[in-house]
């Protein structure tokens, strides 16, 4: 069974993470963005100005983003510790807002129920791994 993923921030990085995850058959369970409403999420994902039109079905239904039949819960929390990651079993959160880039700030996602946080922006104090450079040094500790 694939790990359950959550995305915090549905800007350029959050949208490409969703596309990549869906392309690999991964399960994205929850997307949080306090500044983007669901209808605009649908529009931005379907008609991405950088990556082009999404080749699939995208809609909104019952407070969820639906992509190719997969329902993804959407929330609009500003406080990462209030995002209900555990309610849908999210294990890994991709922090793509560019705001919660320190270990202390990223740990707020753990309070919401996530097991690990992947910060998409440079961090002053979190370990940084780059594919093809030092990814082999990553351990699950």
From TrEMBL:
Single Gene Ontology BP annotation: glycolytic process
Pathway stated in the Swiss-Prot or TrEMBL entry: Carbohydrate degradation; glycolysis; pyruvate from D-glyceraldehyde 3-phosphate: step 1/5
UniProt keyword list: Glycolysis, Oxidoreductase
TM regions (residue ranges): none
Catalytic activity: D-glyceraldehyde 3-phosphate + phosphate + NAD(+) = (2R)-3-phospho-glyceroyl phosphate + NADH + H(+)
Assembly and oligomerization: Homotetramer.
Name of protein: glyceraldehyde-3-phosphate dehydrogenase (phosphorylating)
Native organism: Biomphalaria glabrata (Bloodfluke planorb)
Taxonomic classification: Eukaryota, Metazoa, Spiralia, Lophotrochozoa, Mollusca
Gene that this sequence comes from: 106077489
């Amino acid at each position: 069974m694939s790990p359950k993923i959550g995305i915090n921030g549905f800007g350029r990085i959050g949208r490409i993470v969703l596309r990549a995850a869906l392309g690999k058959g991964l399960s994205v369970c929850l997307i949080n963005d306090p500044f983007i409403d669901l209808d605009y999420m649908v529009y931005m994902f379907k008609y991405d100005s950088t990556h082009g039109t999404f080749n699939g079905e995208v809609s909104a239904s019952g407070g969820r983003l639906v992509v190719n039949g997969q329902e993804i819960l959407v929330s609009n929390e500003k406080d990462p510790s209030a995002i209900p990651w555990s309610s849908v079993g999210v294990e890994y959160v991709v922090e793509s807002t560019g705001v919660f880039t320190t270990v202390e700030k990223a740990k707020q996602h753990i309070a919401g129920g996530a097991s690990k946080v992947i910060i998409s922006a440079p961090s002053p104090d979190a370990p940084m791994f780059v594919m093809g450079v030092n990814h082999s040094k990553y351990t699950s500790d």
